[in-house]
């Protein structure tokens, strides 16, 4: 490298984003302009970032904002419905229905959107990904409620454990110790299982339309044609390099196909405009209103403990998958805008405590339905985070868009093209040679035997000790990185899963 080039690079490193910014008209392609924006951004960590000075709004930012809004509305609705059903079954005095679930979803979309999308990830730390929903925990919420856990107790424990892990930089350490083979296998498994689940849900929805609406004919074929149309559309978008448009365009296509094939009668608008009760005392101060549980006691904290440990243990592989999308789609030299795992963990922990304290019930994690489309669209975090926060607030107040977002064709297609197919693609991209394919294969096999979190912990331990994968890589690691940290991760995950009954064939120990 010549002395002149070195001097130019040093000068650029000292210049601000505003000084280095060049208009899109100076670049041959839009992609070159977006790549340059990623390279010159210098986000201020826990400092004030301002539009124009530190980042810009581009029309591509609307794509992850819309995708994230659809995804989070779907996830929150599933979470609150599961809490309502489980708590109503567990406690005789609790009777929570659909109206309760809708109002709690609105609480979760208003307060956290303002504090942790717009203010936190938008203005004060664009290196922290937005705090969204912990998707892998949704199937467990029924069991959490039946075990006697309290949403507020769970939130406090989860937030405290998360803050401790982020303080000691445990999240980033675990991410760095996960090889590309292990990470690739984890992503492939999550993508495959998620895709299979959404496809099955869509076919079940279409098959039930006949009896649900007393029709003389079956609408089971509707799911097939919706999926077929979206496979073609997604392939075209991938071919022309516009996959970041997949969620809005494919969701629109799903709605159009459903109406065109006679399934539009299943869409009902029942959520009227309004603002939920934002007084924490209403939600937690009495056993006659809100969650009808009152404040948590020691019994609630004990019942919530293993689930809180499990949720935090599952954060690292979740965060890893989202950061990988940035690394795969961002150009070299854009390291400054990659999400910081530990800062994201801090944001998720605070969001968990605050969001639940004001009446929410979400179990939070890194926001995948935002980050994956944002990375694919080659956009950094802040502008899209602000737009997403605004959209969530608007949707929560208007109400009716929530009904569209949770309609089965929109929900399944949005999750398929926005999360699970990209997960599959990213996982396969990471498996580049025989050694990484061995680690990936064993990770997938272990995930089928137990679950993806335990599989990640086990294969990370085996891989870091050279028992599978790249033996030369294992030789470069210290004893702490080979044995202590991966071993502790495996033991903690195993203990938490044994406690809550997540190991097949073994009843819950607590």
Automatic annotation (TrEMBL):
Keywords: Membrane, Transmembrane, Transmembrane helix. The keyword Repeat does not apply. It comes from the Bacteria. The chain crosses the membrane at residues 62-86, 107-125, 137-167, 174-195, 215-237, 244-265, 301-320, 381-400, 406-428, 440-462, 482-503. Residues 1-23 are annotated as: Disordered. This is Xanthine/uracil/vitamin C permease. Signal peptide: none annotated. The keyword Oxidoreductase does not apply.
